[in-house]
Amino acid sequence: MALRGAAQRRQALRQMEGELGQLYQGWSHTLTQALAHLEAYIDFSEDDNVEEEVLSRVASTVRALEQQIRAHLRDGRRGELLRGGVRAVIAGPPNAGKSSLLNLLCRRPAAIVSPVAGTTRDVLEVPLDIGGYPLVLSDTAGLRAATEPVEREGVARARQRLCQADLVLAVLDVTSVSPTPLALGAALDALEPPPGTPCVLVLNKADLLGGQGVSPSATCAQGHPATLLSCKTGEGLEALLELLAKQLEQLCGDPLLGSPSLTQSRHSRHLGACVAALARFNRGDNGDLAVAAEQLRVARRELGRITGHVGTEDILDVIFRDFCVGK
């Protein structure tokens, strides 16, 4: 996806300033120093040139480093979502107004709208910018027990896309469901959204309520917000856009606040392998210092695949600088 949102541009500018690289280089330097001190202890402690306190300092440093990288990985999805776009899936029963919602949000007739149930068969994707955040919006087939083979395949694809969603827009016909938390919760359960995935309930066809509207702020289901909308008249669109912007901000965060976000899945893999090696070091299963040092080497190699190669000479430089050996 091309850069299109203000939040994406802020993230790109921050990365151009090198903050993410500086963070990883700092971790690499810390790890190099910890490994050098451990190897100095292994090789020179018998000559009384290296104090035993070195081991406790190394252990403390590695524990702190593991915690920092774990925290970075936990927050890493924010950077990836901001870079590639939040995958939002429009889901709901047939004729609830899913395709109409897609057309309303993208302001063009991207999807075919028909009163005939089961018109949408395949998944239709449209990239959008909502409140400065990138969104990849997918319209899907109505969720029901289909019998016709093509529609059945469409429902299967809708279910598959729903499982991959970062955000679900659950569209319901407000005239067919009571806008109470209990009833909305039951309707949401029937759609089977992925556990833990944020949802926004869009109560469509508000124009058919005959003036007997329900306050959007008073409706929610299982902690998920709900809002009234009429895709026919556009009433409630601004409230929906504000709600979506808040959801996207929670998912992506502010790229200018906190530590820089992780944006590359490749970096995530190497950092995951790095933190796994640090965890093995911190467990100290057999107390063998040579094995512990090897875990730090593994962790350092994984970081090096992101920052660039760090040679053996860097280890030696630290040993000669910090200890009275080789002099």
Walk me through this protein's architecture.
This protein is of the alpha/beta class. The protein has two domains: 6-75 and 260-322, Up-down Bundle (Four Helix Bundle (Hemerythrin (Met), subunit A)), CATH 1.20.120.430; 83-252, Rossmann fold (3-Layer(aba) Sandwich). The protein is 51% helix and 12% strand. It has a seven-stranded mixed β-sheet, with helices on both faces. Helix 2 packs antiparallel against helix 3 (53-74), helix 2 packs antiparallel against helix 10 (289-307) and helix 3 (53-74) runs antiparallel to helix 9. The mean pLDDT is 79.
Write the layout of secondary structure elements.
Elements: H1 6-16, H2 19-44, H3 53-74, H4 76-84, E1 86-91, H5 98-106, E2 124-130, E3 133-139, H6 149-163, E4 167-173, H7 181-191, E5 199-204, E6 220-221, E7 224-228, H8 237-252, H9 265-283, H10 289-307, H11 312-322
Parallel strand pairs: 1-3, 1-4, 4-5, 5-7
Antiparallel strand pairs: 2-3, 6-7
